Amino acid sequence: MDSVFAKQFRLRTMTSWDANSFEDALGKKVQWGIVHGKQFSGAKEAAQQLVSIVKGKVINMKAMSEDVRKKLGTEEEPFEGDVPIEKVEECILELVSKDKGNNDKFCYIFDSWEHKDADSFFCAMSQEFGLPNFLIHTDASKATIADRYKKANEVDDIGEEAQQELTDAATKDETNQKELEARFEQSEILKKMHTVTTDTMEGCNKALKNIFSAKVVLVNHEKRLDVDIVCSNLAIKYNFLYISVYQLIRQHIQERTDMGKALLACKKPKALNDSVRYADGAEDEFEEQEYSAAHFDLKMVL
After folding, report:
1. 32 with 133: CB under 8 angstroms?
2. Where in the chain is CATH 3.40.50.300?
3. pTM of the complete model
4. Lowest mean pLDDT among 3-7, 108-112, 240-244
5. Does domain 4-212 have CATH number 3.40.50.300?
């Protein structure tokens, strides 16, 4: 028999049962995402900017691979050949497990991978952690990439060999994006893929904040209209959190929290107009008129 939560979750999603989404709703799923792009497109810089936005931790698989290489060999006989990808994956799992043991919850950001291709990487990480929470594909103009290459290599011109290297990197990036897009489409999470222009890192940071910052919808209505159920259903359908402001104000004041005391200190009762006042004789069961946000300092309420 399903638990009450399971039944509510199935109703909330309006879709067939999905264990991955259920784990996510319970807060058990590991949050992770992908940031990638062509050479000098700013993928690593974008990943670092995401750290503060999503409380992230960047996974450096190349560094992990080199650590594994050292452990597999000795100073007298260094390990030769390709490092088994399974060993690198074990390092990632150990890192995540250690964070969980310390009650540290991060969103793990991959800005590169050591697997043979993007498809193999996606499958391996999805098998361990569930589907990714996002993919950021960084893109920059040819002029920007050329300038960054010259600066990084301290040269005035890009030679034929270097130009071919950049072209090959761009082709590889296109292949990676197509493979990942196919997986995201198959997993029905295409809406989690975003392309961010990185010609300036300031613009990139702004775009990332727009993608990951909370979206807020303010609802105002006449008291003759009962919108609680409508708002609740919309929140369920679009995975929003429905917050009734006056009920929060009421709760803080009645429980005498620090916020409640601050709200009472700034309260200036106002005469409510017809659009927000209950009609004469109408029941105000939850004292909505008394705890309306209109009576309190707007900045305090926000």
Report:
1. yes
2. 4-212
3. 0.70
4. 3-7
5. yes
